[in-house]
Structure formats: C-alpha cells, structure tokens
Amino acid sequence: MLAAQGWQNKDIAVEVDLDRQQLALWRQRFLEGG
User: Fold this and answer.
1) Which domain of life does the protein's organism represent (predicted)?
2) 13: closest CA among 23, 2, 3?
3) What is the rounded distance in angstroms from the CA atom of residue 33 to the CA atom of residue 17?
4) Which residues are CB-contacts of 31 (< 8 A; sequence separation ≥ 6)?
5) Is the pTM value of this prediction over 0.90?
C-alpha cells in the first residue's frame, strides 16, 4: 500500500523494519502473482 502511495523501497523498508533487498523480493512476488 505504501508503494501505491509513491513510497520508495528504501523508505518502506525503514517503515516496516525490513531489509531493502527482502522488501524488493516481496514486491516482485506481489507483482508476479498478486
């Protein structure tokens, strides 16, 4: 939801306390399968 609001991966990662690479992987999986 944060990405849909225009947030960048680095900012989302800080907000949800995740590694930026892990966040990028989750976003990619979401884009592939919803």
Assistant:
1) Bacteria
2) 23
3) 23
4) none
5) no
